[in-house]
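Q: Entry one of two.
A:
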Amino acid sequence: MDTRQDRHTTTSGSPVNDVQAQLANGSDAYPIDELAVRRFWQDNACGDDQVGGLHARFGGDYDTFFTEYDNFRYRNERHLLGCLAGLNVSGKELLEIGLGEGADSERLIRQGALWSGVDLTPESIARVKTRLTLRDLPYQQLRQGSVLSLPFA
């Protein structure tokens, strides 16, 4: 995994403007501090605080946490259910990149996907593995790694 800690120096005074300028010029390279991104998501599991926290509110009760998280997620992002249901994934190999709490992962597996997943953080991998195990859902592979160097052949 590339863990360079490149720092971006702005030329226009705004990192957002610089990124937009690079994209407009056709540049596909932009320095990213992947280690900082991984540390952030490791310490702030995606969506955890939206329902009070796995440990803070649910005392580590994963099953109840996942149920509450899914209810919150799909109540507030209603379009996702239709988008997921519209995917013809049954019997197809599928690689999901960036797993969060695994809500979409579970849905895709229930729709028959031959699912594999990769996430930058060990925390997300542990949570998704726990979810799939608790719900007795099959999967092909579940790996921690970077999208910049996918750990799949």
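Q: Entry two of two.
A:
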Amino acid sequence: MYSAIFGLVAPDGEEIGPLVETAILSQYLHEPTKFARIHYARWKQGEVDLVFLNQSLKVQGCAEVKWRDQHFGNLDILKNIFHFCRQTGLSEATITTKSKRGVKKSGDLTLHFVEAAVACFSIGAQILRCRTGSQDVVVGRSLFSVDSRTTHA
């Protein structure tokens, strides 16, 4: 829709970051009960894009949506995720990338990296499976995970 209104977007243009965040967040709109428990965190020195709360409104997980790969090789860029996870007691977080996938540990924190396009697809596929009754939708890292049912749909 952005391109229809404003014109083409270059693959690495400054507009792409917010568009990727919107694409991932919009997948959750298909499951309104879960969408109501997705928030963001912002404080004076930083922010985290997605914060997942459980039914008791306690932090269950978090994700940082990126459209670049540089943080995969330089975890120092992710200081906001580290800060948020320390403050909330989380032991893992998910970060989307442009083209990198993997798991990295830093101290007590496990970081799950997944391509933004795969995360978008995975969220939609899991919500679809929920709608057909073959799986319950959960929020957090598991929605970004890649399994054989998601990648070979």
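A: Comment on entry two: Residues 146-153 have pLDDT under 50 and may be disordered. Strands lie at 38-43, 46-53, 59-64, 92-97, 102-106, 109-115.
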